[in-house]
Design goal:
single chain; Arc Repressor Mutant, subunit A; 3-stranded antiparallel sheet; 6 helices; elongated
């Protein structure tokens, strides 16, 4: 969806769509599960865990960070990533609201 169409939808709808799109890849689900299990980690930890290159994992982390699913904090030459619990709870609540009518 182009930027010009964003104004046709609510902020919540746009944010939820952005988060859903950022999770729409099995590698990102695997990264999310790993971060939940570990609590926090550096990109190198994920590279050791998943069968993907460092650059590929970095791209996935960036997409999830841009969608506010995860947070990254620079610690020297490393970036430590963790789940943004508040944003993920908001996403879960929004999804529950959508599916309550079913």
């Amino acid at each position: 969806m182009g930027k010009s169409k964003d104004i046709l939808f609510t902020e919540r709808q746009n944010q939820l769509a952005k988060m859903a799109k950022a999770l729409a890849h099995p590698a990102r689900i695997a990264i999310l599960e790993y971060l939940i299990k570990k609590g926090t980690c550096v990109c190198g930890d994920i590279v050791d865990e998943l069968p993907l290159s460092q650059s590929t994992i970095s791209q996935h982390l960036k997409a999830m960070k841009d969608a506010n699913i995860i947070k990254g904090e620079v610690d020297g030459v490393y970036t430590c990533y963790c789940i943004d619990a508040t944003q993920c709870a908001n996403m879960l609540g929004s999804l529950r609201n959508i599916f309550t009518c079913c």
